[in-house]
Design brief:
By secondary structure, the chain is an alpha+beta fold. The chain has a single domain, classed as Alpha-D-Glucose-1,6-Bisphosphate, Chain A, domain 4, CATH 3.30.530. The protein is built from 4 helices and 7 strands, in the order βαββββαββαα. A 7-stranded antiparallel sheet has the order 1-7-6-5-4-3-2. Helix 1 packs across helix 4. The relative contact order is 0.25.
């Protein structure tokens, strides 16, 4: 069994339009195909490089409201952007999930020009770096269909 899900679609939006959307955490609720994001907390400016961080408010059945701190792990203007979420603070859901450390997974977007204002978008959801066995057993948390819906939403929101 693979430790990642990868979805590729060609959409009617330019790489520049998509990258502008993806690099702006304040707009991520517009593209959330899994329905967990509730908005950015604090800093609302677009990210500008690897190492930047943003805090997202989340809500999920069984867990309720919580926050994820996302650290940008990949950044190439108009080509690639990705981030690694981790529960913030790491022990904030201890009463619901015990000593599990929810971190080690990434979401990465690759944008390839496809002509006529189109882009081939590949979104990779990767949990191969999850080291906590209890957390690893919960993957995947997002389905292939939800990743595809996220790409579709991004295409609509970017234009």
């Amino acid at each position: 069994m693979s430790d990642q899900i990868k979805v590729t679609r060609t959409v009617q939006a330019s790489p520049e339009q998509l990258f502008a959307l993806l690099s702006d955490p304040a707009r991520h609720t517009e593209i959330d195909g899994a329905g967990m994001l509730r908005g950015v907390e604090g800093r609302a400016e677009p990210v500008t490089g690897v190492g930047d961080q943003f805090l997202m408010n989340m809500d999920q059945e069984g867990l309720g409201s919580y926050q994820m701190r996302n650290t940008v792990t990949a950044y190439e203007q108009d080509r690639t952007i990705g981030w690694a979420p981790e529960l913030y603070p790491l022990d904030s859901l201890k009463d619901k999930i015990g000593d599990i450390e929810p971190k080690g997974h990434t979401y990465t977007w690759e944008l390839e020009p496809a002509g006529s204002g189109q882009t081939t978008v590949t979104q990779t959801y990767d949990w191969s770096e999850v080291t906590d066995d209890g957390f690893r057993g919960l993957f995947p948390r997002v389905s292939e269909e939800q990743l595809g819906e996220t790409i579709d939403r991004a295409a609509r929101a970017a234009t």
